[in-house]
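Example complex used in Figure S2.
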Amino acid sequence: MSWAETFRIAAEALLGRRMRSLLTMLGILIGIAAVMLTVGLGEGARLEITREINRLGSNLLIVMPGSTSGSSPLAGATSLTMDDARTLADPSVAPDIAGVAPMMSTRANVQHDAERTTTTVTGTTTDWESVRSRNLVDGRFFTASEYASSEQVVVLGPSTAAALFGDTPPVGGAVVVNGQAFTVVGVLEAVGANALSNDDDLVVLPMTTMAQRLAPPATARTLSAIYVAATDDASISAAHQQISRALVVNHGTTSADQDFSIMTFQALMTAMNTMTGVLTTLLGGLAGISLVVGGIGVMNIMLVSVSERVREIGLRKALGATPALIRRQFLVEAGILGLLGGALGVALGLVGAAILTPALGIEVAVSLPATLLALAVSLTIGLVAGVYPASRAAKLAPIDALRSE
Amino acid sequence: MSALLEMAGVRKTYATGAVAVEALRGVDLTVDEGDFVAIVGPSGSGKSTLMHIIGCLDVPTQGRYALGGEDVSSMTEAQLADVRNRRIGFVFQQFNLLPSMTAERNVALPLMYAGVPRAERAQRAREALERVGLGDRTHHRPGELSGGQQQRVSVARALVTNPTLILADEPTGNLDSRSTTDVLGLFHALHDAGRTIVLITHEAEVAAEARRVVRITDGLLTEETPAHAAGAPVAKGGTP
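Predicted assembly (645 residues):
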């Protein structure tokens, strides 16, 4: 007997008990849909975090003054200097560092004609653009020569530019920062706000200019942070060690009482991924239990089906069906129940994902491999659930089967 | 005529609980090709057990049984299924038709297990149904047919594979007298066409139709002279 024949008979048997087949599939259907949605939600959250971190720069390290572990965190608040930035930029000291952007930040009033706003003003080097992976929508970043000669030029964040200039093109325009006149040379591309900072509302200018014109004398030589870009994602921990070593030497402290701290986005990302991973596994596992229950449902109904069809099985055997063929028949039936339940579950999962994505604001990520895996799992569940009923059917003695009324 | 069915010293013991019941206690039986044999006996005589062994639905505990020269007493279940498929056409008391299938597909069922392609199966099933006079009922389901018609469908199913042996187990047990005559007429026609028929029954009138009658009592066989061959009345003790 051909496989096509086996499938045809199985399909007829299932269609002959349509309602029961549907109800039997329900367990697997709900299980697959639930697993798809929870895993999809976890995956969506992970993608969201990754996107956010990549936007900030996944290879970025931030060196901040002050210790996070020392007894008085404010003790070293002025510990970072331009010397430190220069040390880190030296490839012989820190070979895994690609770029260093020392930063000196303050809040300041910025004015253009009648429009005024208060925002973060950051003095930095030309490396800032690449270290922070920022692009410009208009104009250019300040140049090395402008930096060297402390020119009064600024680059505006897109929100700041919009607030001050409205619809007029800002490049070439004049702004006044804390009473000093500056020329706008470029406007940054928007990256959106995040939990850490609003990277769209800011003014960037050469640090040399900042130190001379804007910073209070007491803080003119200290940095508020140094942004460091590692050569790639893999060299972050190497860069971390190199920074640590170099700054401990520079400051003449030991690693136990270091007066700075280093933060990496990758550590943050790893922590968040671990958290979402644990949550996903937990919820997915709960949903997986319903799959197991669904499998038991299939086994139960297949057993009922076998005892209902004892006469049919006996007749088929009398007419020449071998035990192997009978087993195959029932396995295929159980497999179809599993696979069809899984397919309907995938359909329900897709609908659920389409509804939940806008409702929750988090993408419910449904991937093709995950979908295929779900189908394979549901087929396997069906087959495994069918093994015992099928072998019961195969073992029925034809005379006992024919005798039963 | 050569022997189609040879049974020697066949015993069958069932272990029901602690007691072992010996249903067959050394049966010797030979059926020649083209013969029409009735096996009669009261219930509990081992009649059904003998039918199961002849039909290769069960194997003897002891003794030898050969069907068409093949020793089936030590075959595996799968081999027995193949022998049943190729050599035996069953007619059951309960018809045993699958209610969801049309007459044509019921008749074609053994051909499916024989691996005959679908189109040929349908063709042969229709021919078999025509032979039993149901050429116009091929697409009826069992529920839409009378008892006699259902039994004729199962006769068609029994002969569709051209089996060496047609084995009927109380084929008229569930039929009225008119349908009984009908079905027995079919068996005669098949016998005349050269088929070997073994018919198991407890009705003397039915047994009387056969050429040879074998009586089974308490698991042992005794040969009987068919009533009509001896010119005697059919029913024992029924005549004045």
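The interface with chain A takes residues 52, 55, 57-58, 77-78, 81-82, 84-86, 90, 92, 96, 98, 100, 109-110, 112-115, 157 of chain B (CB under 8 Å). The first strand of chain B starts at residue 3 and ends at 16.
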